User: What shape does this take?
Amino acid sequence: MIVVPGPASQELGQKIAELLKTKVVPVEFKRFPDGEVYIRFDGKVEAEDVVIVQTTSPPQNEKLLQLFLMVDNAKDLKAKTITTVVPYLAYSRQDRRFRPGEAFSIKTIVTLLEACGAHKIITVNVHNPEVLKAFKIRVEDLSAISLLAEYFKNQGFNGAFSLSLGKKAQAIAAEANNVLKGGHGYIETRRDRLTGKVTVEKKALPVKGRDVIIFDDIISSGGTMIKAIGWVKEQGARSVYAACVHPLLVGDAEDKIMKSGADGIVGTDCVPSSVSLVSVAPLVAKALAK
Ligand code: R5P
Assistant: This one.
């Protein structure tokens, strides 16, 4: 097996290769003055089981194109198998046609990866794992929630209350609670498809005087997390932390979340950022070693 750390996941790719004790093929990349991207493998991939690691957080369109070029290049250069590790899979929230005539974007992305030559995709906490079953290509969805919960446990938050956002995501809080053991619950959230406005259902939660950690798959604009933090604080929580697998933190989201009263934000290196304190490298390496 050889690992190719893509331009968007150089550190994570290196870490995965170190854990697996495999060779790395570096990627030379640049952007031409007109915006087109360039990719070159600085090493041989022929007859190898190739693992391409490339996240697709914003600017997602450029990172996706780099990924398509890398996968197709590996196929042309006669790789034996191609596994693509896409820690954050862009467009995964458009997982159906919510309004008539909309594009089913995640289907298009997966179809293109398969057409380029990917044999398997490994991702982390995809927004809706159910949708992956509809694809022909095997997509393995790993969960980094326990790693995030372990981080908090090691920081002294054993016994903290775990919260997730949305009834469908209850499993996230339950998974965190397996580590933190302070009880779990969820806050129902709703987003208006046209205006993007988020509302939270103000259902009572047993958080008074407690340390609370709100787990979510993605923090993008921060709007959902800010609403949830507000409701938890209103009920008298002692502290409240925002934890997410994919800290997209668009614009000044980080600042806005802290100003809303959060005691901290913790994410993973699925998306490199100032809050990416937890590495998914061991999780991915274990999946690849299987
Ligand atoms: C939504 O279903 C997701 O789990 C996140 O809660 C959402 O994507 C976060 O988006 P934003 O930070 O823009 O509110």
Q: What stands out?
A: Helices lie at 10-20, 60-76, 105-116, 145-157, 170-180, 223-234, 253-259, 281-289. DSSP finds eight helices and 16 strands in the chain. The first strand starts at residue 2 and ends at 5. Residues 60-76 form the longest helix (17 residues).
